[in-house]
Amino acid sequence: MINIFIEMIKYAFISRAFFAGLIISFCSALIGSSLVLRKQSMIGDGLSHVAFGAASIATMLGFAPIEFSIPIVIIAAILILQLNQNTKINGDAAIAVLSASALALGTLFISINQGTNVDLNSYLFGSILAITSHDLNICIILGIIIISTFILLRRQIFAITFDAEFASAIGIKVNTYNIISAIICSLIIVVGMRMLGALLISSLIIFPCLSALQLSKTFLQNTIISAILSVTCFIIGFITSYALNTPTGATIVLVNLFTLIVCWVYNKLR
Question: Which domains does the chain carry?
Answer without folding.
Answer: 2-269 (1.10.3470.10)
